[in-house]
Amino acid sequence: MKICIVTETYPPEVNGVAMTLSRLAEGLRVHGHPVTVVRPRQRSENFKNHKSSDCIVRGLPLPGYDGLRFGLPCKGSLRKRWQKDPPDVIYVATEGPLGLSAIAAARALRIPVTSGFHTNFHEYMRHYKMPLLKTFVSTFLRRTHNRTRRTFAPSTQVIQRLEALGIQNLRLLGRGVDANLFHPSKRDAKLRRSWGINPETGIAAIFVSRIAAEKNIPLALEAFARVRARQPEAACVFVGDGPERPQLQKQHPEFIFAGMQKGEALAQHYASGDLFIFPSVTETFGNVVIEALASGLVTLAYNYAAPQQHIQHAINGYLAPFDQPAQFLAQLDAALESRSDWHAIRTAARQTAETLDWSGVVAAFARELDQARNES
């Protein structure tokens, strides 16, 4: 089965959607399916960097997301490409101009096309002070996804929300974690010393994500301040980059800003922490949560998406009722007061992550794509 993935974001970009799509593409290839990825060239790469199976299209910078680009409309060129070498099924992962072009070209050529819901753009509007656009974006998402044979979403909770928007033919597409890369053994004493941690009693609270408005940064800052108030020797570390970072770094010299990390360095940063604080309320899944579990961290997050699926409160992490900041901070207090339980929680977190292998996710995805292409 020849599969084409169409996406606005893909490695070398560093974000959850890019990582997920890369894992799916590589996993499908391992299962014997030829995969082509249609995507815009990113500013950080040149044409020699991409794989021969990539189809690179023109793109422009994405406003408000420095370093990211969106693909320009290209229905004609995609139609010409697919007339010559049609895939058996197309997966449109993002709803930008490139994705719309791909859906239109696929439907014109009668090539089965599916879509994915990876980002809560309609929920981002209030964080970027554009609440009036939420209804418009929701309507756009419904019309876009309902032109495809399947829409894949990462959790049953997201599926329920999309059903409420009127999106049809929804299917679950779970997430896995590389439990070999993200592992407690990657803990780095030298890195912890560089954070100023007392090797006997000190702790590191970390936040790993894009440092942007939609990630609920103010509550992360409040949580970090609370950690420092209770544990003055604690290190509080932001791992990631984004539009909010320069200003935050100036305003909060008491916190550590480690910047964007990748691969082994990212795994070391995770494993060198103790407490993972993640207050985001806009995730469709939250890959960083299961990466933290795999790294053996004590995780605190809101009870939805990945945390709801994989965290048992006070067993392998801590949960707060969705979008309740006072409760989030109360659970942080509870976690800090229960440090004697952390060893058991970290062990249970790691055990949970070891069950979340990508191979089963990819196999289920391939079955759904095969069913989609055989529908009339």
What does this structure look like?
- The chain contains 15 helices and 15 strands.
- It has 376 residues and is an alpha/beta fold.
- The radius of gyration is 21 Å and the shape is elongated.
- The model is unreliable at 122-129 (pLDDT under 50).
- CATH second-level architecture of the largest domain: 3-Layer(aba) Sandwich
Which descriptor suits the 3D outline?
elongated
Low-confidence stretches: 122-129
Spatial order of the strands forming the largest sheet: 3-2-1-6-7-8-9
CATH homologous superfamily heading of the largest domain:
Glycogen Phosphorylase B
The fraction of residues assigned to DSSP E strands is 15-25%
- What's the Cα radius of gyration? 21 Å
Structural class: alpha/beta
Might you state the CATH topology name of the largest domain? Rossmann fold
Distance between the termini: 17 Å
Q: Major beta sheet, specifics?
A: 7 strands, parallel
- Could you state the order of secondary-structure elements as H and E? EHEEEEHEHEHHEHEHEHEHEHEHEHEHHH
In total, the number of strands is 15
What number of domains?
2
Please tell me the overall pLDDT: 91
Q: How many individual helices?
A: 15
Classify the helix fraction into a percent range. 40-55%
Specify the CATH class of the largest domain: Alpha Beta
